[in-house]
Structure formats: structure tokens, C-alpha cells
Design a protein that fits this description.
mainly alpha, 5 helices, about 80 residues, Arc Repressor Mutant, about 65% helix
Length: about 80
């Protein structure tokens, strides 16, 4: 997470302050929620995107087992080449 600073006019700050108190949260959290909703899309949009992504590799036939793939990478002479350099 990164820190940033915003300048808010008095009316906006007052509205955010009142809303944060009523929800028992912080102004920072309200701003993060608003930015997420505006720029990352709503929850439905994210949910749809994740549902489209899940299972994407199932369609590939002959895909190697992950454990076997990592072991095959380790069997190479990469470590020896790095030690010689």
C-alpha cells in the first residue's frame, strides 16, 4: 500500500468525516472504497472477470504437472553455470 496526500475542500471533508463517523470507519477507507468503485469496477464486474479466468488452463491438453515441471527446471546445469560465472 502506498501513502498519498489529498487536498479536500471543507464541505467535502465535512461530508466524508460525518459519513466515516456514522459507519465507524476512517476517511481514508471511504476514499479507497470510492476509488476502487470508480476505477476498478464494481464487484459484479470483478466477479465476472474471475469466473471467466477460473479453469482457463483446463482446455490445454498435455500440460505438464507443476511439480514435474519445477523438478525438470532443477535438473538442468543452470546452478553449475551460475557458479562458474
Amino acid at each position: 500500500m502506498r501513502r498519498t496526500q489529498l487536498y479536500l475542500d471543507d464541505s467535502l471533508w465535512s461530508a466524508l468525516h460525518a459519513h466515516a463517523r456514522s459507519r465507524k470507519t476512517t476517511i481514508s477507507e471511504l476514499v479507497r472504497e470510492a476509488v476502487r468503485a470508480q476505477f476498478l469496477g464494481g464487484g459484479e464486474e470483478r466477479k465476472r472477470a474471475m469466473q471467466e479466468f477460473v479453469g482457463i488452463r483446463r482446455e490445454r491438453s498435455g500440460s505438464p504437472d507443476a511439480v514435474e515441471y519445477v523438478r525438470s527446471l532443477r535438473r538442468g546445469d543452470r546452478l553449475e553455470r551460475l557458479l562458474r560465472a
